[in-house]
Structure formats: structure tokens, C-alpha cells
Amino acid sequence: MKRIFFLSIVSISFLFSACNTEKVKTERADAPFSWDKATIYFLLTDRFNNGDKSNDFVHPDSAQPAPLRGYMGGDIKGITQKIEEGYFTDLGVDAIWTTPVVQNIDAGVDEGTGMSYGFHGYWTKDWTMLDPRIGTIEDYKAMIKAAHAKGIRIIMDVVINHTGPVTSVDTKWPDNWVRTGPRCVYKDSKTTINCTLVDNLPDILTESSKEVDLPPSLVEKWKKEGRYEQEVAELDEFFKTSGLPRTPANYIVKWLTDYVQELGIDGFRLDTVKHVEEGIWATLIDHAKKAFKIWKMNHPAEVLDENEFFTMGEVYFYNIEGGVEYDFGDRKANYFDTGMSSLINFGFKYTAKSSYDTVFTKYFSLSSEKYPANIIANYLSSHDDGDPFDKNREKGFEAANKLLLSSGAAQIYYGDESNRDINAQADGDAKLRSFMNWEEQKSDKAKQDILSHWQKVGKFRKKYDAVTKGSPAIISVKPYLDIRSTATSTVIVGLEQPIGEKTLDLGGKIADGTLLLDEYSGQEVKVKGGKLMINTPFNTVLLSKI
């Protein structure tokens, strides 16, 4: 697709360590990037940062949204601003995953909890253009360029399973495209896939092998926008070249992979994976990988690395501790066999309730020994998980330690790093979707301290492979102390240590005379008599060999 025309429509601790930290930055490069140790920052575009007030949506007086269920002004330019300010870099973030950016339905719907709008991006109206309430294609290009300039990848959230709800102005797609029932009851694969997630959320007939024409409402829309002929020509070329039949799912495959080929996004987060046949995901992933190769070939100066296109699937309730397969009841599915790079691990938040030694040893075993070929994407909170690890935001330091110092990829949910409210006064999943707490970060000392902690641990994780790939040799459980090594780095992790003077007995595992840098405080220390003594105003030490 030639997208250029139609998409355009639319703290004290810092002062303490500043001197030594700058020295380290100039002398040490971060470890080479790989997705299996990536730190992924997930944000709701509309709830993150308002960089362009001209596209703010005004809700009709007659259809005001329920609390936290309407648009709040966040946009793509707002994300770009924070990229350029270095916010993500300071957290050690490798990739930014945003909620879907395609155009969503125009009106709201009453879901029983009050009027709701498609601010989250999961209620698609048109896969071929960006939603004007969050920005234009030029805004998106600028964001990708800004991210890549900082060595940060972009993950685009994509939906194949359903369109947006039917409203007074958003019509249902034809019956040969979607079903409106029955609702999913999750007894087996059929009652999980060939069904609707909720009422009034039309389900794409992804299992259909019948060729279909474009929905009349989409044809009418494109003609009004002056791009019908261009879109049809591109579709004709795609289906001729690919050899794929014109099924509902394959149209969406074409529309989604266009973004990869034209913009060079680095990965997809795949929504509602278990509600779509494995073969559809295999087709999408195959064409996305091909599209990424074409983009790289056409933009050699912009290529970040030799990694192939990344895909991260959301199989709700999937837990790596149960194995790589998902059990429908009547059969099991291995989504890694579709070419999927990673699955989101819903089980980590439960293991995180255990002690540090249990968490770190278990996840080193899972990611490095038991399932080394499968990327585990761990998280503690998200946009639709009503049972997050730290619901009341009382364990901010512990959350950072367990998530960022564990093996596997890590997903930070926006505001995890500054204790943004995820138990807001709203109904359902809206509780988890308050606006980013930028003002609190400026004025609240406690939140500043938590943010500083996440930043230090995040950058330590990014800098050394040993953090995620080194087997933790545990010296002490309380206070926690371990040593991790790989061929390229050795680190020492000390958590919940005494504040002030502390003596760390390294058990003879680090030679006397070895000079170490505490990257948490910026202090240099030397091993003497198998021990090191250090005096810092923190209970955390993150040491590396100099």
C-alpha cells in the first residue's frame, strides 16, 4: 500500500551519583539488544501524554462517557515528546508497545457500566488509516524515527478477531464478514474461537475460506475520502502477488502488514490470540516478516539490527510454568509453532509473590534452561488485568526488582515506575487506565524515589547480559545477595540491604583486589578479604566489575 496519501488524512539520588554515572556512560556500552531480554514499555496512547491539543476529542453533551471511559487527549506526538526528552532511555527501555493506532468507531456505546468510547484502540472501524484523535501518519512516522534514533523499537498492537461495536453511526459489517453471536463460553476451541467476546462486538469470520467483497460501508467511506481506486488497486496487487484468497482474515493481513513495509515498525503485539485460528496467525506472521525484510532493503541506513520481525501474543491466562502449549479443553495449541516470537506470561505476577530467590532461580530455569527457544514476556500489571501484583501501589520497589532483575523479557505498564493509580474510581478495567501521573512525578517525593529506583534498575538490566542471562549464585536470601556471570559480564545484586554501612560477604566468589562499581549509588569499591564494604543511603546495591 502507498500510505502517504490516505493516512495523512487524518532526585536527590540523581545528585548523589551524577559524577560517577556520567563516567560509566562514556566508558561502557549497553549489552547488544535481543528480544529475549528486552524491556518493553506498554502504554495506552490516549492516556500517556497530550502533545497535540488540536486533535482532542469533544464528547457530545448527550453522550458523556462514564469515568475513565472516554478520550482524555493522549496522542502520538505526546509519545514522541517523551522519547525525545529521554524518558524511556532513562528507564532502560528497549521497545515501546502502544495500543492500536488504527481508526476506531466514532460513537460511544453503553456497555452497562456507562457510555464507553474506543479511546483504547481495540474497536476498529478502518484498518487502513490512523485514528485522527491520536494523530496522523506523519506523526506516527516521526515517532518511529525518534524511537529508532534512540535505539528503541516500536511494537504495534494489532487486532484481527473483531471490529468495533455497532453504534448509531458505526454500522455492522456484512454477514459474510462477521458474526454477532453466540458469545464465547470457553468449553473447547470452537466455543473460544467461533464466537463473540461480548455482546455487540462483531467477530470476524477468521475461519472462513470463502472470498468476500469489501464491506459497503468501507467502500462508501473510501470514496468520500478520495482513495477508493488506490485502495482497490493495492488489494488487487496484494492478492495477485501473494496468491491468498480474498477471505476476511486475509484482507486484514494485507492492511496490517502494510504498516510494516511502509513504516518499519519492529513488531506486533497480537490481541486475543486464542480467539483466532493458529493458521491465521501463521499467515500474518509470515507476511509481516517478508514486509520487514522489504522495508530493511529499502531503508538500509535506518536498520537497527539483523533481528527479524517480532511478534508477542496475548493468550489470556497463559502461564509459561505450565508449558509452551495452551489447553482449550479438547485440544492444545502451540502458538510458537505459528512463528510467534513470544507469549505474554500471565503467571509471573503470581510467582512474584514469592521470595527473591524463588523468583530469580525459577525464571532463570524457565527462560534459559527449560524453554530457551521461547521468549517469555513477563508482566505485573496491564490494562485489562483486574488482579495486578501491586493493585494498591504499596510495593513499587519490590515490583521493579522482581520484574527487571528476572530472566526473560519484561513488560512495564505505563506508570508502574511511578505508582500511577491503577485502582481509580471507575468500573471494570477502566480502573487501570487513569492518565499518566506526570504532575505527581514532579511534586511527590515518594513517587520520585520510586521512579529513580526503576530507572537505575532498568538501566542496569539493559547494560549487562548477566542480569537476565546469568545463573543467580545466591549467597544470602535475607538480605538478598547473588552473583551472576556470563562470558561478557559479572554483576552482583544486593536487595533490601541495610541503609548506610553494609558489609557484603561474597563467599570468595570474587577475587580480592577486584574493583567494582555500584551503579545504584555511583561508588567504586574494592573486594578485600572476600568481602566488600560500602556506605550508601540506599538499601540496594547493583555492582559490576570495572
- What proportion strand? 15-25%
Shape: globular
User: Radius of gyration, Cα only, in angstroms?
Assistant: 24 Å
**CATH structural class of the largest domain:** Alpha Beta
Tally of separate domains: 2
CATH superfamily of the largest domain: Glycosidases
Poorly predicted parts: 1-26
- The average pLDDT score comes to 94
In CATH, the topology of the largest domain is named TIM Barrel
- CATH architecture field of the largest domain: Alpha-Beta Barrel
Task: Provide a count of the helices.
Answer: 17
- What helical percentage do the residues reach? 25-40%
Quaternary assembly: single chain
What is the terminal separation in angstroms? 51 Å
Give a written overview of the molecule.
By secondary structure, this protein is α/β, with parallel strands linked by helices. The protein has 2 domains: 3-11 and 38-463, Glycosidases (TIM Barrel, Alpha-Beta Barrel), CATH 3.20.20; 480-545, Sandwich (Immunoglobulin-like), CATH 2.60.40.1180. Helix content is 32%, strand content 18%. It contains 17 helices and 24 strands. The strands form 7 sheets. It has an 8-stranded parallel beta barrel. Strands 17-18-19-24-21-22 form a 6-stranded antiparallel beta sheet. Strands 3-6 form a two-stranded antiparallel sheet. Helix 14 (396-404) links the parallel strand 15 and strand 16 (409-413). The longest helix is centred in the middle third of the chain and has 21 residues, at 278-298. The radius of gyration is 24 Å and the shape is globular. The N and C termini lie far apart (51 Å).
